[in-house]
C-alpha cells in the first residue's frame, strides 16, 4: 500500500518526539571525529510545507511543532533540533518542517554519509530533488529494509539506522522487527531507532515482545502519550525504541520529557515513559 503521505502529519507531536531523539543520537555520534553512516529506511519527501494543503487539512502541526515553536524556555536538549527548524523558517513565521532525512542532512558533518530510501512515487522525486546537490547522500527507490542488507555494515563501523514505516498495515509491526534482526546480524554495534505509533496498545506490546525474543540487548523505550490508550480510531501516543542508545540518551530524555509533555499536552492528559525493555 502506498496511500500514506507524511505531509498530512508533518510536525505533529510524534514528529517532535522522533526528531528530538534522532537529533540527540546524531549529536552523540558527532562527539567522535570518526565518520558515521545515517540510514533512513522510510525517508518521505524530506521537506514539508506546513502552510500547504495537506498540513492545513489536518492541522496536526498546531498541536506539535507550533507549540514548541512558541516556547521561550527551550531545554538545551532541544536546541540541535530546533535550530534546524529555525534555520528553515527565517523571519519568525513557521512555514516549513524538516523530515528526518533533512534534519540529518543539516546535522551531519561533511565527512559523514547518508543513505535514504523511499518507495512512494510522489515522495521519491521530491526527496531526490531535495538532496540532488548533497555529495554525502545516496538515494534509492525501493524497500528500505532491503537496503539494510546492501548498506550494512558501514566501513566506519559507526552508524544510526532510523526505521519509521507508516504502519498502514498490521504486518509493518512484524516487518520492522525483521528489519532490525537483519540489520543487527550485519552491524551489531550500530544504533537502531524505531518509531512506532500507539493506535492499539496490543500491537505495540506484541512488537516489544518480539524484540525481546530476539535476544538483542540494550533496548530503550521512550514514549509520549497525548491522551490515554483507547480502542477508538486514532493515534493516542507514539514512541521510539532505541537499540544501543548513546550512554547519555536515557538521562537526556528523562530530563526533557516532562517539558515536552507540558508543552505539547497543556491539558495534562496522557503520560511519558523512559525505561529499558532489555538492559545491557
From TrEMBL:
Gene Ontology biological process terms, A to Z: rRNA base methylation
Site (described: Interaction with substrate rRNA): 4
Keyword annotations of the record: Methyltransferase, RNA-binding, rRNA processing, S-adenosyl-L-methionine, Transferase
Catalytic reactions on record: adenosine(2030) in 23S rRNA + S-adenosyl-L-methionine = N(6)-methyladenosine(2030) in 23S rRNA + S-adenosyl-L-homocysteine + H(+)
Active-site residues, record numbering mapped to chain: 164 (proton acceptor)
Superkingdom in the source lineage: Bacteria
Positions that bind S-adenosyl-L-methionine: 19, 42, 100, 118, 143-144, 164
HAMAP family documented for this protein: 23SrRNA_methyltr_J
UniProt family annotation: Belongs to the RlmJ family.
PANTHER family assigned: RIBOSOMAL RNA LARGE SUBUNIT METHYLTRANSFERASE J
Chain's role: Specifically methylates the adenine in position 2030 of 23S rRNA.
Name by which UniProt lists this protein: Ribosomal RNA large subunit methyltransferase J
Annotated organism of origin: Providencia sneebia DSM 19967
Gene: rlmJ
Amino acid at each position: 500500500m502506498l496511500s500514506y503521505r507524511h505531509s498530512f502529519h508533518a510536525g505533529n507531536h510524534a514528529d517532535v518526539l522522533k526528531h528530538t531523539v534522532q537529533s540527540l543520537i546524531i549529536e552523540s555520534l558527532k562527539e567522535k571525529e570518526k565518520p558515521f553512516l545515517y540510514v533512513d529506511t522510510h525517508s518521505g519527501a524530506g521537506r514539508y510545507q506546513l502552510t500547504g494543503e495537506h498540513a492545513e487539512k489536518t492541522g496536526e502541526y498546531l498541536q506539535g511543532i507550533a507549540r514548541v515553536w512558541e516556547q521561550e524556555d527551550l531545554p538545551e536538549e532541544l536546541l540541535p533540533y530546533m535550530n534546524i527548524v529555525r534555520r528553515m523558517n527565517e523571519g519568525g513565521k513557521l512555514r516549513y518542517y524538516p523530515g528526518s532525512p533533512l534534519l540529518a542532512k543539516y546535522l551531519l558533518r561533511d565527512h559523514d554519509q547518508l543513505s535514504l530510501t523511499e518507495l512512494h512515487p510522489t515522495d521519491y522525486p521530491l526527496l531526490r530533488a531535495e538532496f540532488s546537490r548533497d555529495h554525502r547522500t545516496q538515494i534509492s527507490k525501493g524497500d528500505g529494509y532491503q537496503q539494510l542488507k546492501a548498506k550494512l555494515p558501514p566501513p566506519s563501523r559507526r552508524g544510526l539506522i532510523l526505521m519509521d514505516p507508516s504502519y498502514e498495515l498490521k504486518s509493518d509491526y512484524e516487518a520492522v522487527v525483521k528489519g532490525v534482526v537483519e540489520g543487527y546480524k550485519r552491524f551489531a554495534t550500530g544504533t537502531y531507532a524505531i518509531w512506532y505509533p500507539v493506535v492499539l496498545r496490543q500491537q505495540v506490546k506484541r512488537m516489544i515482545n518480539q524484540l525481546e525474543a530476539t535476544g538483542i540487548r540494550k533496548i530503550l523505550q521512550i514514549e509520549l502519550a497525548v491522551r490515554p490508550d483507547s480502542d477508538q480510531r486514532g493515534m493516542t501516543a507514539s514512541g521510539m525504541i532505541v537499540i544501543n542508545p548513546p550512554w547519555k540518551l536515557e538521562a537526556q530524555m528523562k530530563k526533557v520529557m516532562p517539558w515536552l509533555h507540558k508543552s505539547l499536552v497543556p491539558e495534562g492528559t496522557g503520560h511519558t515513559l523512559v525505561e529499558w525493555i532489555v538492559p545491557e
